[in-house]
Amino acid sequence: MKTRITELLGTRYPIVQGGMQNVGYAELAAAVSNAGGLGVITGLTQPTPEDLAKEIARCQQMTDQPFGVNLTLLPTIKPVPYDEYVQVIVDAGVKIVETAGRSPEPFMATFNQHGIKVIHKCTSVRHALKAEKLGCSAVSVDGFECAGHPGEDDVTNLVLLPAAARVLKIPMLASGGIGTGVQMAACLALGADGINMGTRFMATKEAPIHDNIKRAIVAASERDTALVYRPLRNTARVYKNKVAEQVNEIEREAGKDMKFELIRDMVAGTKGKVALSEGDIDHGIWTSGMVQGLIDSIPSCEELIQDIIGECQSTVRERLNALMA
Ligand SMILES: Cc1cc2nc3c(=O)[nH]c(=O)nc-3n(C[C@H](O)[C@H](O)[C@H](O)COP(=O)(O)O)c2cc1C
Questions:
Q1: Ligand 1: residues whose CB is within 6 Å?
Q2: Percentage of the chain exceeding pLDDT 90
Q3: Sequence-separated (6 or more) residues with CB below 8 Å from residue 2
Q4: Which of 9, 85, 192, 234 lies 20 to 30 A from 119 at CA?
Q5: Where do the structural domains in the chain lie, given as residue ranges?
């Protein structure tokens, strides 16, 4: 399947696995890349730049296909040595970076100098246009359905994707809420050149997280996510477990006086990490998107990508073509 995305990334299929904190290890990235998509290692899941260098080397041993590294530029409790992470990416010869959170502007000169293509993930048309202006090679446009940070505009992909496609010149990945081939066909029809998925790749055999989490995603409906940190204007869509419900309760009670300190301990990243690795669903906050309502299997990445591509093509060939008769 050829689109501007496969040509840009050198992949067989226009399918990208978005960066995922505590999930995007080399095992998953390599499995996605070997299956013809673009796997992405999550840079900041590695505690130090040296660890990232080792993780990239591990991935290079597991695949000879292109893969990328995600660099998330969000406010963190502990300052992150971003320049050092960028240097590791450059030195390792990685040629694709997914940025997200804030503008990648401070690092664009370095990326350009080393021929690194930047896919910037953003949640609005204005930020997508800004990324294009900065020289990013592509954007991932993340609708309100998405897992993680959907921004504060709350525009869903049925409107966001065609609105972005109208004005963008660079290739666009549709992101957020996608897990099936029917949806992929819809996204391509709406103007995307490919798709980016997070939650769907969590429920795969190779995702290095506990089976309890994968089973919880399969069991959950599209209504089982929660939006946390909304009063702090740093909204995140997460799996609706006991901790997320307690956070929402505290946010409701605090009203205008909501402060991060009130929930800091409950939402600690270390607790979410334990939930994912040990399968204790209610141990902390962990990320999952509305698409969980469409996920009913735990396939390998190869099976998943083949299934999505097959369903996408048959949707166009049979369902949509039938309308032309
Ligand atoms: C467990 C999990 C962790 C995530 N962590 C990050 C992250 O660290 N950085 C980032 O840019 N996006 C992160 N995301 C967002 C994904 O890259 C992707 O944009 C999103 O999952 C798309 O929505 P979907 O889950 O509906 O497919 C995360 C998503 C999940 C499910």
A1: 18-21, 23, 42, 70, 72, 100, 121, 142, 145-148, 175-178, 196-200, 202, 287-289, 291
A2: 98
A3: none
A4: 234
A5: 4-209, 211-290
Q: What are the residue ranges in the chain where pLDDT is below 70?
A: 77
Residue 223: DSSP 8-state: T
CA 270, 237, 304: angle at the middle one, nearest 5?
90
From ligand 1's centre to the CA of 264, what distance in Å?
21
Q: Which residues pair with 295 in a beta bridge?
A: none
- Sequence-ordered list of residues with C-beta below 8 angstroms from that of 146, at least 6 positions apart, any chain: 123, 175, 176, 177, 198, 237, 289
Does an H or E element contain 308, and which? helix 301-314
CA distance linking residue 127 with residue 117, whole number of Å: 18
From the CA of 198, how far away is ligand 1's center (Å)? 5
Q: Looking at the structure, give the CATH architecture of the domain made up of residues 4-209.
A: Alpha-Beta Barrel (3.20)
What is the reported pLDDT for 325?
72
Phi, psi of 287 (to 5 degrees): -90, 135
Q: What is the pTM of this model?
A: 0.98
CA atoms within 13 A on the CB side of 184: 28
Phi-psi region of 255 (alpha: psi -120 to 50; beta: other; left: phi over 0): left
Report the alpha-carbon distance of residue 268 to residue 216 in Å, rounded.
Answer: 21
325 alpha carbon – ligand 1 mean position (Å): 40
Q: Which atom of ligand 1 is the closest one to the Cα of 98?
A: 11
Q: What angle do CA 55, 236, 292 make, to 5 degrees?
A: 80
Token pair of 46 as six digits: 């590695």
- DSSP letters spanning 111-153: HHHTT-EEEEEESSHHHHHHHHHHT-SEEEEE-TT-SB---SS
Residue type (1 letter), 257: D
Is 210 exposed, middle or buried (CB count within 10 Å of its CB: 0-12, 13-18, 19+)?
A: middle
